[in-house]
Amino acid sequence: MKEILQTKRLLLRELNLDDAEKFYKLNLNPNVIKYTGNSAFKNIDEAKEFLENYPDYKLNGFGRWAVIEKSSNEFLGWCGLKYDKNLDETDIGFRFFEEHWNKGFATESAKACIDYGFETLNLKTIVGRAMKENLASIKVLEKIGFNFEREFDFDENNKGVIYKTVK
């Protein structure tokens, strides 16, 4: 279990197969995946298969990371950076169990990931994408220093926004 970074309250580490049940349960909540364009995993085995075949750590040296609360050792969700070869850009993403919303965990972990991206990975630019209605995620992006860049078609039914920050 490779630890990546720590904040005051949080530990971020690579996702592993032991996270499959939590990963599965996270996506079961329709409120959690409402603005993601993702669907729930069919079962824990599908979540395990996703984690087993998650290529980002090997390909890019980084990816989405498990967010663990230090005081309770509880899996709160995930946050991290993802490189998209086709777009040649790195984005920040985060997803947390609903009972942990509005406690600053997304902002705290995302800020740490941005700092890590700039200082450790020497990235020059990081983007954040959200559906236009996802005001909570947009607020997090603004809090961590991202600026509105442009709108785009998130999927066939939804408008999205792209925010960006530069080193």
TrEMBL record:
Gene3D superfamilies: 3.40.630.30. The keyword Metal-binding does not apply. Keywords: Transferase. It holds the Pfam family Acetyltransf_3. GO terms for molecular function: acyltransferase activity, transferring groups other than amino-acyl groups. It comes from the Bacteria. The keyword Transferase applies. Residues 10-167 form the N-acetyltransferase domain. This is N-acetyltransferase. It comes from Epilithonimonas arachidiradicis.
